[in-house]
Amino acid sequence: MNGDFHFLDIIFFAMVAAFLVLRLRNVLGRRTGNERPPPTQWGTKREAPVPDKPDAVAPDVAADNVVDLASARKPVPADVMLPPGPLGEGAAAIRALDPGFTLEGFLSGARMAFEMIVDAYANGNTKVLRPLLADAVYMPFADAIAHRAQAGETLETELLGIRVVEAVDAHLNGTVAEVTVRFVSEQVNLVKDSEGRIVEGDPQRIVDVVDLWTFSRDTRAKDPNWQLAATRAAEDQKKD
Between 20 and 30 A from 114 (CA), which of 23, 121, 202, 232? Predict the structure, then answer.
């Protein structure tokens, strides 16, 4: 008799275990192999040989530092709202050639690009700057970095925050899309000499910096990434 009871106990516990397994599968679900991978805005890093020239940028470095300002390449529904006036008309013209373009997605990438460029310029990191900047912008940036190095000076920039990131212009120049963005940021900028003495700036002074940056991209190119093509200070730049 005891043997029969042990057998019934085993059957009972097996049924309980099977019930719990089914409940867990219903609650947690199962991986089917069709799940979407997590979104990656920056792309996958690719291994590449180290270039012979010290100033050259290895493909993996360029890939990691290029910002796709409109990473979603899927067509955008026609009813997605655009701002009124010339800005909306320009954005619609760009979208006609680049169906994945949206101002919202573009501005999200522009903010990231702004942070990367400001940081790389302060640190003199031309390898990060090269893929992000068009030639017309890269050359002055690189010259300023070289001049600082020759003078034994360093630039320290603390980006405390970005209050405004807004598109102020969008248009097509042939097949080249151009979008101008107004950035309002709070920064502390210091220039130090080779001895670490401050020669310009005040560590206790927070400056409102207003910039107008124009990004461009040839819509015919397979590369979806944009580059900084022009910079200028805005007319509402605060001056003391």
Answer: 202
